[in-house]
User: Fold this.
Amino acid sequence: MAPKKTAVDSSLSAFATADNSPFPDRYDLDGERRILGSLLNDDDPDPAHPLFGRLQLYYEREAEFTRMRQAHEARAGADPLVGSSEARQIKTLPSLVAESQDVMSLHTLEALRLFMGKAVEPGKPGAPIAGGKRVAAALRSLWSLSSNDNPYADWALVETKARIEEVRAYIKSEQGQLLLKLDEMRAKGLAYSVLQSREPAQMQLGFASPYGYMVALLIVEVDYFTRVLKSAQRRDLVSGRQGHALLQAVKHKCRSVFERVLYWQKYLMKDELVTLSRVDFVAGAEASAQQRVSAVKAIFGEVPKPVFMGEEAPRHTKRRLNLSAAELRLLDAVPLADAVATGVDKNLLT
Assistant:
């Protein structure tokens, strides 16, 4: 007598497929989820339902997919040819560290003062002079604000980089003329060396942002310029008055940049503005967002459109956004040049 045939559950071979499926048979979890919608929402599905077999298969595949993802995460996405113990090292690998402390050597009092700044003497009137150390900390704060998608923090960083580059270009130009005079002297038979300190000051840096090193580079260039200038003065190639005027011009340009950075920090780090974001500028934003926008416009004016749109971005930023075309159109429609609203918190403007 022939054995009784067992009915084959056709649901186990009938399922939605997709080319991007993680399964060898191209089983499509999303497609099956749409087909089984009513059964998946049923707390007690009927075993007699024609799709019950597909429902069981779905749960099996969903559990298998979960295990796949867990294994992938445990291996940190490493290629299957890489051993599991090797793959796990990507999660335990320490971050990069410097073998030694970064040090800036300064030969001149002018550059050292520019780096250290000057506090007001107790009991004496006056205002403190901003130094590179404080400015580096302020730039780190503005760099952190860029992670909030703050357009004014971006503007501050873009502007600071541009202004520092202008000062460096000025120093390079003036220094080049001084070195040319010294080289002409050497060509005539009078050798020279650029003055230097017998014991340069060693400033440990350890900045937590790349902008700190941008400031440090400016200061070492001021230091070398000062050495070249005083070398030229000693050789009677520049008068004392000319040398003083040149040095004062460089220091004034540097301190102008420094004061502007502290001005940015003073207001953008206020509690009332620290949460400022590009979303605040979109039509229909809540009242507190509109207040922030009005206040920041009253303080700094209108943010340049290229900066607001992200077309002109800081050299270093913590902003991590990939905007869609629709989101870019929404930002592009924001009226940046509208009048400052009434009712701005006066405390923000002082």
